[in-house]
Amino acid sequence: MGRFSEFIAGSSSHENGNGNGNGHIPPPPNYNDSKVPFATEPKYPTEPPPPFPHLFACLHLGRTDRVRLIGVPQNVIPAVDEAIKRVWLPGIQQQGPYTSGWEWKVSGNPWQGFGIEAITARRLLSHILHALSAVGWDIHMSCDLSKKSYDKDTIFLHSVPPRQRYYFAISFNESDKIRIIDPPNDYVRDAFIRAVHTWPAGIQQEREKEPGCYQLKLRGYPWFSSDGTQIVEARLLACTILSAMESVGFELVSSVDMSTASENNRDLDTWYFASKV
Q: What is the mean pLDDT of residues 164-180?
């Protein structure tokens, strides 16, 4: 029998017998039989749901140079406009309505993630998130909603009471570098540095990459290793960094894929932390 025929035969056996040869497909789980008791028996409404309140919107990082707000009230736009103008020194080429949202096209290519723009792009997003919180829209989550090559995450926002939150970023770079960008003070920066120094293989180099950005270059290849020990230790390091930031009053609010990268320069997520509320 040829390889294709063997594949078809194998597929049929899985479809007909769930791969166990007895021809029986188990039923879905019955949660009424759960041994974990409900505090109270849930009562589900029978009437149609009410009209949905406007609780969510999103921030879209388009192409290599666009910032788009989708589904936010008009009074949000000036706050974000001011943040972009204050932080992105190359400036704004143009802005205006974009279907059901608002778009800024900035000079340069912040979402390519190369060179000096890799740092300033993350600084830009921190300031946009701060401006959004101040007018009542906190970051809720980020996710990938596109199958296109070189795509980026969409950042979802949740309507909340306006509040002042301080945001900063931690980025994982190349195969062995990690940066903290714009921590609020030396106390938070030093907690980050102490956490990274727990890396078992040690630190090759550390320095202030530019004002507001501190970089450490680790020994080995924590973000690109196939070695089982390094894979585990890299994840333990991530847990240590999270614990360190929690201990100084900051929580991880989202992990964002915000760069287009390239075939030869695979990007990693950037972590965004905010002061606890």
A: 96
